[in-house]
Automatic annotation (TrEMBL):
Keywords assigned by UniProt, alphabetized: Coiled coil
Example of a GO biological process term: protein stabilization
Protein name, as recorded: BAG domain-containing protein
Coiled-coil ranges from the UniProt annotation: 58-85
Molecular functions per Gene Ontology: adenyl-nucleotide exchange factor activity; protein-folding chaperone binding
Length: 228
């Protein structure tokens, strides 16, 4: 499934002074048609009722900017949901590549599976979702360190140890978390202090994303452990 993303042009036009109900400069904002139509933002010179007409031009600008700000925030949230879905798919592919049952296949079967996995990874790589989070260098380093620790869990060949380590990391995200897998000896599952220390160096947005990633990973590892 190919994913095509279109960025609509935002056109700002200056209206004639005579066409503006306020006698000043009007600004019109228009967007190209998309598959999901958003309600059109009002124009600064648009008659939107007596309350709108009675507002000074500055207040009209502020009202429109408030609406645009709300839409931008909504767009960011939707993009982050899609980004999380992509990350989950990428994690699932990585887990399959390291699945111990692959050792039970013959060489030709493993080669076929590997080619299929590579094809899926390549197609997933064509989907680019980028929601920028402002980070300083220390936060960048902390995020890289956290991702490296999680990648070690994914690459591990022992699902039991991986699950326990994942639970420790998840506990570090929040001491109030309810464990997905409750039949674990509390003496063997505790907060990983090293992971917690690195996690605290990440931004709040990154911490939320990391927690979601660990929750999804723990569910998968728990299912793998039950199968065994």
């Amino acid at each position: 499934m190919e994913v095509d993303m279109f960025v609509t042009d935002v056109m700002i036009g200056t209206l004639d002074a005579g066409s503006s109900s306020s006698g000043g400069v009007g600004v019109a904002i228009a967007t190209a048609s998309t598959s999901t139509e958003w309600p059109r933002s009002p124009r600064v010179d648009e008659a939107g009722g007596s309350s709108w007409l009675n507002k000074p031009p500055m207040e009209r600008f502020i009202d429109i900017l408030d609406q645009l700000d709300t839409k931008v925030e909504s767009l960011r949230k939707e993009a982050m949901v899609l980004r999380d879905q992509k990350d989950f798919l990428a994690m699932s592919v990585d887990l399959l590549k390291n699945n111990e049952y692959l050792t039970g296949l013959n060489e030709n079967e493993r080669e076929e599976i590997d080619c299929y996995v590579q094809r899926i990874s390549s197609r997933l790589g064509t989907v680019e979702l980028n929601v920028c989070t402002v980070r300083d260098q220390a936060q960048e380093d902390s995020l890289h360190h956290v991702n490296s620790l999680i990648d070690l869990i994914i690459a591990s060949a022992d699902p039991v140890i991986s699950r326990q380590k994942c639970q420790q990391y998840l506990n570090a995200c929040s001491t109030t978390d309810t464990s997905v897998y409750t039949d674990i000896d509390p003496n063997t599952v505790c907060t990983d202090k090293k992971f917690e220390s690195v996690l605290l160096g990440c931004t709040l947005d990154d911490q939320k994303t990391i927690k979601k990633r660990l929750q999804a990973l723990l569910v998968y590892l728990t299912q793998q452990t039950i199968i065994h």
